[in-house]
């Protein structure tokens, strides 16, 4: 069950031997949320897997404004209903190159085969090639999203497992201790976090990986 920021702060204070450290003052919000986002980007958390089906095709239209509901870290699939197969969802592939996408976009209207994400100067957009030949087909986006930032002590993390919150607590405490020039204690906490995260992910996550990909630099 997700823990509150107040609970995480209590564990960080204990590990840092500092009863005044705050995760909700100006710097605490900035650093805590930064480490939280980096941890969420480390592995594929089921809690952060989202589907979005708000877009639909318009015949002859290549460009669609990307939904603003979620901020995706990684797109794992884009599917479109196939009007020629009982509206079953069919995968559309990411364009392997600009050349191949441009060649595909010159073809007559048909069921899209490739997609490309970009920005049109105003909005984040999704482009489909060839242009759809049917209006009203649902476009289903699936991927890993960024967690919502916490803003206060009563907010909770997104994590299902308490051990994930423990790992986040150890990472934050390790970051604090490292900046206070206590590397040995910091390294012990990084090791604990790596052990917990390896069990959650089902694969080895090393302390060095945590230091390079999650812990704040400088």
Describe this structure in words.
By secondary structure, the protein is an alpha+beta fold. The protein folds into two domains: 5-41 and 147-213, no CATH class; 54-145, no CATH class. 36% of the residues lie in helices and 22% in strands. It is built from six helices and seven strands. It has helices at 5-16, 26-40, 98-105, 162-179, 183-201, 207-213; strands spanning 49-56, 63-65, 72-82, 88-94, 114-119, 124-129, 138-145. Strands 1-7-3-4-5-6-2 form a seven-stranded mixed β-sheet. α4 (162-179) packs antiparallel against α5. The protein is elongated, with a radius of gyration of 22 Å. The model has no long low-confidence stretch (mean pLDDT 95).
Topology, pairings included?
Blueprint (H helix, E strand, L loop, with lengths): L4 H12 L9 H15 L8 E8 L6 E3 L6 E11 L5 E7 L3 H8 L8 E6 L4 E6 L8 E8 L16 H18 L3 H19 L5 H7 L5
Parallel strand pairs: 4-5
Antiparallel strand pairs: 1-7, 2-6, 3-4, 3-7, 5-6
| Oligomeric organization of the protein chains | single chain
Number of helices: 6
What number is the mean pLDDT? Answer: 95
Strand order in the largest sheet: 1-7-3-4-5-6-2
Question: Any idea how many domains?
Answer: 2
What level of helicity do the residues show?
Answer: 25-40%
Work out the number of β strands.
Answer: 7
Structural class: alpha+beta
SSE run: HHEEEEHEEEHHH
What gap, in angstroms, lies between the N and C termini? Answer: 32 Å
């Amino acid at each position: 069950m997700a823990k509150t920021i107040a609970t995480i702060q209590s564990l960080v204070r204990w590990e840092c031997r500092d009863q005044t450290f705050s995760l909700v003052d100006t710097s605490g919000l900035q650093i805590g949320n930064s480490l939280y986002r980096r941890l969420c980007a480390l592995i594929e958390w089921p809690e952060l897997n989202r589907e979005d089906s708000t877009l639909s095709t318009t015949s002859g239209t290549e460009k669609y404004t990307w939904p603003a509901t979620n901020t995706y870290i990684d797109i794992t699939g884009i599917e479109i209903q196939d009007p020629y197969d009982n509206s079953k969802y069919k995968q559309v592939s990411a364009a392997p190159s600009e050349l191949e996408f441009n060649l595909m976009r010159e073809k007559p209207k048909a069921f899209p085969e490739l997609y490309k994400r970009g920005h049109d100067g105003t909005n984040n957009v999704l482009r489909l090639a060839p242009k759809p030949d049917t209006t009203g087909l649902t476009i289903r986006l699936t991927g890993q999203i960024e967690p919502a930032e916490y803003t206060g002590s009563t907010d909770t993390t997104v994590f299902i497992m308490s051990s994930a919150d423990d790992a986040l607590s150890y990472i934050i405490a390790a970051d604090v201790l490292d900046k206070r020039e206590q590397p040995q204690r910091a390294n012990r906490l990084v090791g604990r976090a790596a052990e917990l995260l390896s069990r959650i992910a089902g694969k080895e996550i090393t302390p060095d990986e945590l230091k390079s990909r999650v812990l704040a630099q400088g």
